[in-house]
Write a structure and sequence with these properties.
By secondary structure, this protein is mainly beta. 6% of the residues lie in helices and 36% in strands. The protein contains 2 helices and 15 strands. An 8-stranded antiparallel sheet has the order 10-6-7-8-12-4-3-14, with no helix packed on it. β1 and β2 form a beta hairpin. The radius of gyration is 16 Å and the shape is globular. It is found in: Cytoplasm. InterPro entries: Dup_hybrid_motif, PTS_EIIA_1_perm, PTS_EIIA_component.
Length: 188
């Protein structure tokens, strides 16, 4: 997958809200979040989204943004996208103790481009060390602007190319200059 290749990320939602398409950060098969074998994700305690049963260990940035968190073992990364989404990409379930399985390719504070590799995981070793390789991708700040997940993908997705889900906001995100959304100003 070529870096920088991603579906149109920002769009006006036909229902009156503002929407953002979130490409899959992993290649694999989409699994509904309520089927993740961890109540923290299945019950949406940290956010809503979807999970991917990965085919390979490459995790890429779904959208442009900044790395806000990187867990010590490299099993999870947090991003704040240019559209205002706060994403958590968690590779595997009960994977925090799986040392030596992950290679972090970014650091906290790094700016990332769509399709840029973030983490590389050895799926064989992960399968042996974790409860599941199923990887939740959640938006952790939906409540800030009455957001919701819409149009989750089904079946196979390709990292950085296929939309995993859309986020629909009830109101536009404030722009960095505080004058409203970049969407409402016609950029993107």
């Amino acid at each position: 997958m070529a870096e920088g290749v991603a579906p149109r990320a920002r769009r006006r939602d036909g229902g009156g809200g503002h929407g953002v398409a979130v490409p899959a950060p992993l290649t694999g098969r989409v699994v509904p979040l309520d089927q993740v074998p961890d109540p923290v994700f299945a019950e949406r305690m940290v956010g809503d989204g979807a999970a991917v049963l990965p085919e390979d260990g490459q995790v890429v940035a779904p959208l442009a943004g900044t790395v806000t968190a990187l867990f010590p073992t490299g099993h999870a990364v947090g991003l704040r996208t240019d559209e205002g989404l706060e994403l958590l990409i968690h590779v595997g379930i009960d994977s925090a103790h799986a040392e030596g399985v992950f290679a972090a390719l970014v650091r906290v504070g790094d700016r990332v481009r769509p399709g840029q590799p973030l983490i590389r995981a050895d799926l064989g070793r992960l399968a042996a060390a974790a409860r599941s390789v199923l990887s939740p991708v959640v938006v952790t700040n939906l409540d800030e602007r009455a957001g919701r997940i819409a149009e989750p993908a089904r079946g196979p997705v390709r990292a950085g190319r296929d939309v995993l889900f859309r986020v629909v906001w009830a109101e536009p995100a404030p722009a960095p200059d505080g004058r409203g959304s970049t969407v409402s100003r016609g950029r993107g």
